[in-house]
Amino acid sequence: MTLPIDLDLLEKRIAIPALLAELSYLNEQRSVELVRVWGEKTMPITSLYDLLLKEIQVSSCQQQAN
Fold it and tell me: Are 24 and 31 in contact (CB under 8 A)?
């Protein structure tokens, strides 16, 4: 049985809230900006997912450097 929904896209959509929460501990201001992007649906899911991964990595590295 084939689902009409791309499973990769569905997994990214499911992961976004947890990624936003993770980012909020590292960079609260940026996470609020991206929550707005998520809520207003102004960016495609894959783009937002990729951006969140990048933001978490950058913020994590900056925090470790301090």
Answer: yes
pTM over 0.85: yes
Selection from 32, 66, 40, 41 nearest residue 55 by Cα? 32
Question: For the chain, which residues score pLDDT lower than 50?
Answer: none
In degrees and rounded to multiples of 5, residue 11 shows phi and psi of: -65, -40
| CA dihedral angle for residue 27, residue 29, residue 33, residue 35, rounded to 10 degrees | 60
Q: At what angle do helices 45-65 and 7-26 cross, to 10 degrees?
A: 30
Q: Position of tokens 């899911």?
A: 45
**End-to-end CA distance of the chain, in Å?**
51
Q: Which residue has the tokens 């609020």?
A: 32
